[in-house]
């Protein structure tokens, strides 16, 4: 059985938050200095531990916000960074789909909830258990870690694209103990991306109809006796209500369908 520890952190304009909070916070904060892609994994070996840290850009704070998940494994490393990347993305999608820690706003952007990060502790523990189960389900892809490169500083790093392939990534890890692996693609989930688009489109339609309704209300104030104006206004109001219900249904049913096993 692979024993792993899982950390969660969020870096936004209002501050830095981490669970569980300990001395690793400075290490996780330092990863943000080289965060220039939509998502990335940082592989950090030091000295018998391997830190696999997934970071994902959030849409708030002018794109400077981020959400991170870090798995710490003792003495083992994965033979497939791409598979681990897919695992992280599945977990991230699940977190968004639940709408407890992160959510999709009316613009179709992924944003953090306003609640205190520590208030999600119980939920984080449940996610950690799920990650541990996923890691152990794929334990055949983990092998004893390569010796660290003592000729390189612990802070020496290299950046490489995920598209380079596992063999190239492994070669770089023999030269550097800290590797930033970038991925400029969106999270590879047609369901998640499609849901965000539907929510955005419905929100835009809702805003347009609200503006039209306000215009009609002004006109109706001078046409109190016009039955046709009133009927048209009531019809528009019915459409507004239907759109609101459609938006709620889209969010609730659509997000539930994204949950990972």
Structure description:
The protein is α+β, with helices and mostly antiparallel strands and 261 residues long. The protein has six helices and eleven strands. It has helices spanning 25-31, 81-98, 121-137, 166-175, 190-220, 227-256; strands at residues 4-12, 15-19, 39-45, 49-57, 66-74, 76-78, 102-104, 110-112, 142-144, 157-161, 178-183. The strands form three sheets. Strands 2-1-5-4-3-11-10 form a seven-stranded mixed β-sheet, with helices on both faces. α5 (190-220) runs antiparallel to α6.
Distance between the termini: 20 Å
Strand % is: 15-25%
Structural Rg? 23 Å
Strand element count? 11
What count of structural domains? 2
Number of helices: 6
Shape: elongated
Largest beta sheet, briefly? 7 strands, mixed
Structural class: alpha+beta
Overall pLDDT, averaged?
Answer: 78
The SSE order reads EEHEEEEHEEHEEHEHH
Uncertain stretches:
252-261
Helix content: 40-55%
> How is the largest sheet built, in terms of strand order?
2-1-5-4-3-11-10
Briefly summarize what is shown.
The protein is α+β, with helices and mostly antiparallel strands and 261 residues long.
Annotation keywords:
261 residues, alpha+beta, 2 domains, 7-stranded mixed sheet, two-stranded antiparallel sheet, 6 helices, 11 strands, 43% helix, 24% strand, elongated, disordered C terminus
Chain-wise SSE layout:
Layout: E1 4-12, E2 15-19, H1 25-31, E3 39-45, E4 49-57, E5 66-74, E6 76-78, H2 81-98, E7 102-104, E8 110-112, H3 121-137, E9 142-144, E10 157-161, H4 166-175, E11 178-183, H5 190-220, H6 227-256
Helix pairs in contact: 5-6
């Amino acid at each position: 059985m692979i024993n792993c520890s899982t950390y969660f952190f969020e870096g936004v304009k209002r501050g830095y938050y981490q669970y569980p909070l300990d001395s690793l916070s400075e290490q996780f904060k330092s990863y943000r200095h080289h965060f220039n892609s939509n998502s990335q994994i940082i592989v950090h070996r030091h000295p018998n531990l391997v830190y696999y840290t997934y970071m994902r850009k959030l849409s708030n704070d002018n794109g400077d916000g981020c959400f991170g998940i870090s798995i710490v494994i003792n003495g083992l490393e994965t033979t497939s960074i791409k598979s681990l990347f897919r695992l992280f993305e599945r977990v991230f999608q699940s977190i968004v789909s639940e709408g407890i820690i992160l959510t999709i706003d009316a613009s179709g952007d992924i944003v953090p909830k306003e609640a205190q990060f520590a208030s999600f502790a119980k939920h984080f523990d449940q996610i950690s258990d799920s990650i541990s189960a996923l890691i152990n389900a794929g334990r055949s892809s983990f092998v004893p870690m390569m010796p660290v490169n003592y000729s390189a500083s612990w802070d020496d790093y290299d950046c490489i694209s995920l598209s380079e392939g596992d063999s190239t990534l492994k070669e770089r890890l023999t030269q550097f103990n800290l590797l930033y692996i970038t991925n400029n693609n969106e999270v590879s989930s047609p369901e998640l991306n499609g849901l965000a688009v539907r929510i955005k489109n419905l929100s835009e339609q809702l805003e347009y109809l609200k503006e039209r309704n306000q215009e009609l209300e002004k006109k109706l104030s001078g046409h109190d006796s016009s039955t046709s104006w009133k009927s048209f206004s009531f019809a528009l109001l019915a459409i507004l209500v239907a759109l609101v219900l459609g938006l709620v249904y889209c969010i609730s049913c659509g997000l539930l369908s994204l949950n990972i096993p």
